[in-house]
Structure formats: structure tokens, C-alpha cells
Amino acid sequence: MAAPGETRQETASVRNEFALERYRYILQQIHAVNENAHRFLTLYQTLATALVSAALLLFVGYQKWDLAPDTARGGVIGLLALVTVVAAFTSILIVVGALNWLDYRNEECDITDEFVGPAFRKRPRPGNFLRWYETYVLLFILVSVITMWLIAALFLLPAMR
Predict the structure, then answer these.
(1) 149 touches 78 (CB < 8 A)
(2) TM segments (predicted)?
């Protein structure tokens, strides 16, 4: 039979091992969240390029294909609407990823506060969003969608008569 001191020591050892494994998991999840933002940007760039290329191809070839201008305009608008949906979906995934990152970082700070010492790691501050690359990815997506719509509204659609 184990002495009472040994039981407490074993419990503390198991607790420390569990905390270490949880800490490793949190660090792995933080890394995955960071990588996902790049994947989402790649997804947006690929789909937006394909859809805008299709819209430009429609603009250039609608007369050769004997399409009515209204049909071609509707196709260009539909393709830009799809780009907008892809942009919105990508933006939502990036925002959710940033919120997950905040949760994981706070949990990381909780573990290090308890096992290493208070304030070992500074807690993330949402006010630092200007330093997050996700902010600039979202700005890129927003600016690119607005630019696509403006180019279509000012140049492509009026030329399809």
C-alpha cells in the first residue's frame, strides 16, 4: 500500500503530465490556425482569379458567341456575385480562425500562469489587430472585391450594349 505522500505526488505528476500534453496540443492548434489563414487566402485567390477570368472571357466573347448583351451582363454580374460569396466565406473563416487563436492563446496563458508563474506569457489583446496579418488579408479581400465591382460597373457593363 502506498503512503499518503506518494499518492499526492503521483496525482501531481499526472496533473503536470496532463498539463504538458494540453500545452503541446494548444501550441499545435495555434500553429494550425496560423496556417489555415494562408490556406483560406489561397482558396480565395484561386477561385476569384478563375471567376473573374470567366467574367472577362464572357465580356470579350459574348458577341462572337451570339449572346444577347443583357445575357452577357447577367453572366458577368452572376460571376462577380460568386466572387463576392467566396470572399464573404473566406472572410468568415479568417475571422473565426482569429477568434479561435485568441481562445487558444488565452488557454496557453492560463496554463503557463499556473505551472510556470503569473504573467509568464502576456495575454493577447484584440486591440493589437493592426499587427495581425489576418487584418491585412481581410482588407485585401475587401479592396479586391470592391475593385472588381467598380471595374465591372464603370467599364465592362456599360460597354456591353
Answers:
(1) no
(2) 43-62, 74-98, 136-157
**CA 26/CA 110 separation, integer angstroms:** 11
- Beta carbons of 115 and 19 less than 8 angstroms apart: yes
**Domains of the chain, residue spans:** 8-159
Q: Is 116 helix (H, G, I), strand (E, B) or coil?
A: coil
Euclidean distance between CA atoms 115 and 22, whole angstroms:
12
Q: HEC string of 12-34?
A: HHHHHHHHHHHHHHHHHHHHHHH
Write down the pTM of the prediction.
Answer: 0.86
Q: What is the DSSP letter of 4?
A: H
Reading the block at residue 60, the C-alpha cell is 470579350
CB 19 within 8 A of CB 111: yes
| Segment 20-27 mean pLDDT | 94
Q: Return the ∠ at Cα 43 (arms to 30 and 82), rounded to 5°.
A: 130
